[in-house]
Amino acid sequence: xxxxxxxxxxxxxxxxxxxxxxxxxxxxDAASQGEIxxxxxxxxxxxxxxxTWEGEDNLENAKELLEQYWGDIGGKPEAKEGGSKKRKGRxxxxxxxxxxxxxxAKKLKKEPxxxxxxxxxxxxxxxxxxxxxxxxxxxxxxxxLAYLVWNNDKKTQHPLHHVYKKCPQKMxxxxxxxxxxxxxxxxxxxxxxxxxxxxxxxxxxTQRR
Length: 209
Hints:
By secondary structure, the chain is α+β, with helices and mostly antiparallel strands. The protein has 6 helices and 6 strands. The chain is elongated.
């Protein structure tokens, strides 16, 4: 009986499925040629130590959560290319046939690719530079884009409806700076205006007494 119970427990463990609750953040994994890894919080596991870093291939059942995360950070991050390959053999950094040390590891490091922060952008965007309408090459439809300048001097472009959600006050400031005020007409302009309305041959409306 004990053997049967052990087999049942092992079978239940093998059949257990983990459900992604939320994508927390992402990073570029140097160990896998700059592949993007996502920090995953699993449903039912509240400890931070239970979170894991997963590649996109392991998140096939969490596409909606991935797309939501990409939307929060302003678009899908692009994987880095040409990452440095691991050296096989000794880890000492000294060639087996030479005493000359290799280039220090810190010089091989690259700055992580910058991405817009999650959440509100109100305190991070310096100014909305311009708004343009372009044809989306993927859909062939017209799309309005907002060009942003950030406090760190980075420049990015995003769909206009996305910027409305992320920094509505910055969009309001942009529109206010592009308003045109119509001044009241002077006497001569008012006279011309009335002449156009009451031109000869056009009957005037009379009030009934």
